[in-house]
Design a protein that fits this description.
The protein is an all-alpha fold. The chain folds into two domains: 41 residues, no CATH class; 88 residues. Helices cover 81% and strands 0% of the residues. Helix 3 packs antiparallel against helix 4. The N and C termini lie far apart (70 Å).
Length: 131
Amino acid sequence: MKKISKYLISLAILALLVLPLLTLPALAQNDPYGINNVNNGLNGTLGGANTDLRTIIARIINFALGFLGIIAVVIILFGGFKWMTAAGNEDKVSEARKLLVAGIIGLVIILAAWAVSTFVIGAIGNSINGT
């Protein structure tokens, strides 16, 4: 019975991954998800001849901080899962509490870094533009 359920779950996951590939030709005509933009390349979204260096740096910083934020949220979720599955074991509960606290502190630091970087990049842009 366990083997059959594993195969069914694997088949369901595979179907969910393959199904969008089968519908891409139909969606590409209407292009509701920007598929043609991806096919044509990124068109200088990160850089290019007309993109300012400050904009490129801001995009890189925003991407890095967004990625770190995702990691912090995953740590918080893992700590919550660990707490819920501790079954009253105090050692597991304290370890889960440490994960939750570390994730929350990390998230606060990431949000503060984002605020500081946004302020600094905006201040540099205003000083260069003279406003």
